[in-house]
Amino acid sequence: MKHIYSILILLLVVGCTKDFEEINTNTNDPVAVQPSLLLRQVIYDFGEQMSYEGFTAGNLLGQYSTALDFNLFDRHDLKSPQLGGNPWPIFYQNLRDNEIILNLSQENTAYTVYEGPARIMKAYMAAGLTDLFGDVPYSEAFKGDTETVTPVYDSQESIYMDEGGIFDNLDKGIAALESYTGTIALEGDILFNGDLDGWIRFANSLKIKYLMRVSNKIDIASQLQAIATDGNFIDENSENAIFNFTDGEPNSFRLAQLRVGDFNNYVLSETMDEILTSLNDPRISRMYKPFANSTDDGYNGLLNGIDASAGVSLADYSLLGTIFRENTGLLDANFMTSMETNFLLAEAAQKGLITADTEMLYNTGVTQAFDYWQVDLPADYLTVDAALDDGNPLENIITQKWIANSINGYEGWVEYRRTGFPQLKTISASLNNNLIPIRMPYPSEEEALNSVNYTNASNNTEGNSINVPVWWDE
Q1: What percentage of the chain's residues is helix, strand, coil (to nearest 5)?
Q2: How far apart are CA 16 and CA 23, in angstroms?
Q3: How far apart are CA 357 and CA 348, in angstroms?
Q4: Looking only at Cα atoms, what is the longest distance across the chain?
Q5: Quick one: DSSP state of residue 346?
Q6: What are phi and psi of 297, to 5 degrees?
Q7: CA distance 232 to 151
């Protein structure tokens, strides 16, 4: 009987192990992801989530809008995100997925066309991350499945300047696109619909942006002049790195998907109100509504950072415009635009970093910004209300760029930290000793999951302080 049982067991083992891999493979869950699907996912997920983040938390920091309630973040308790204010996981999730695309492009010649876009997206997201937080996990990050789940924090300087960093990836991304001779098209590209030249222009505009960002730390004039002279950057609204939202779910602007009470939590800030009113700027009617108690369809802003317990009347302040709720098909996720590029070049010309016509670049940026927001440019706006030489030209350039970036408030806050413009206000009931924050704090999850490296980074920022400048701001 023992022999019979042994034979039966042997037969069972052989029978069960034959075709084991085929039987236990889920045909509905492919083991290898297509880079086209992942590229679409990275662009959409990052753009959609950061548009919401930038308009909620970013617009509070940049003083475009004010929160009436759930407003600890608006009072600058940045460690208490509520309706927004936690971009860390958005960056790392998408940087991780983008790294998969980059690895696939280098491992399989059929995917070579994806190397350029993957490198450019890596540079773009890494810059956004480090500009908000300063030193962050980078060189050892995105490798949790093969190397470490507790990556070290790299210095911001190294993330920008070292091999594998922001400028290096932009240069290598451009080179990969320029040298690509294959016939396989770039699919999943919802920014440029597979146009490789569009990605090159995007990368060059990003180089302009990041060179200006570090211009107080290194000599960038020759590099910037070379790009400006070559002229191969985003220079028209038709070339913008954007994708469109829709009027209805699931692809509408996320703010429109909030309950009406949450949507109405955001009103026009006093800072934005004063700037737009002083310029007689008609874009105020696109971005906000007249306040309900107005007798003349006027607008009214509220100083940021109120003590919510004091209570205010919603009818006394201007709510967000219909473009952010009912008509979000007019909005887009904004990665990089011609208006921002021209404002950056205007600043560079004003500072003598490039040889160019400052006023022409400024006027072009303003004209494109009105077109971007689909508002008619008043005939005398550039000669009277917003003339470059009316006051401080540099302040005028940065202020116009700040207005134009209203859907991307983190950018407005970052540029305020870099330039000091526009002149933001001391908020109403500050929880940060009346100081405007100059970096985002590391999230509490880092202290729990990456404690040793977090502790080092925290010590370098005076206990994870939001008042310690990042490298390019020192």
Answers
A1: 55, 5, 40
A2: 10
A3: 10
A4: 105
A5: H
A6: 55, 40
A7: 37
Q: Between β-strands 136-137 and 153-154, what pairing exists: parallel, antiparallel or unpaired?
A: antiparallel
Q: Which residues pair with 302 in a beta bridge?
A: 269
Q: Contact at 8 Å (CB) between 60 and 74?
A: yes
Lowest-confidence pick of 34-48, 80-94, 137-151: 137-151
pLDDT for 62: 97
Return the closest-CA partner of residue 216 out of 438, 464, 470: 470
Helix-helix angle 358-372:393-404, to 10 degrees: 20
**Is the pLDDT higher at 7 or at 153?**
153
Would you say 323 and 354 are in contact if contact means Cβ atoms under 8 Å apart?
A: no
Amino acid sitting at position 426 = T
Confidence of residue 148 (pLDDT cuts 50, 70, 90): confident
Q: Degrees (nearest 5) of the Cα angle 243, 244, 248? A: 140
Q: What long-range pairs does 451-454 form, CB within 8 A, spacing at least 24?
A: 452/150, 453/137, 453/150, 453/151, 453/152, 453/153, 454/153
Residue 369 one-letter amino acid? A
The C-alpha atoms of residue 334 and residue 324 are separated, in whole angstroms, by: 14
Conformational region of residue 63, where left means phi above 0, alpha means psi within -120 to 50, and beta covers everything else: left
| Closest to 132 measured CA to CA, from 446, 418, 441 | 441
Q: How far apart are CA 460 and CA 464, in angstroms?
A: 8
Task: Classify burial at 286, counting beta carbons within 10 Å of its beta carbon; exposed 0-12, middle 13-18, buried 19 or more.
Answer: middle
Helix (H) or strand (E) run with residue 154 in it: strand 153-154
Q: Residue 437 is encoded by which pair of tokens? A: 């924050």
CA gap 321, 284 in Å, rounded: 9
Cis peptide preceding 250, ω within 30 of 0: yes
**What residues contact residue 69 under an 8 Å CB cut-off, 6+ apart?**
265, 308
Q: 3-state secondary structure string, 242-296?
A: EEECECCCCCECHHHHCCHHHHCCEEEEHHHHHHHHHCCCCCHHHHECCCCCCCC
Task: Tell me the pLDDT tens digit for each residue of 51-64.
Answer: 999 999 999 999 99
**Tokens representing 151?**
């990556």
Strands 266-268 vs 65-67: parallel, antiparallel or unpaired? antiparallel
- Tokens 């990003």, located at residue: 206
Query: Domain 35-248+330-473 has what CATH class?
Result: mainly alpha
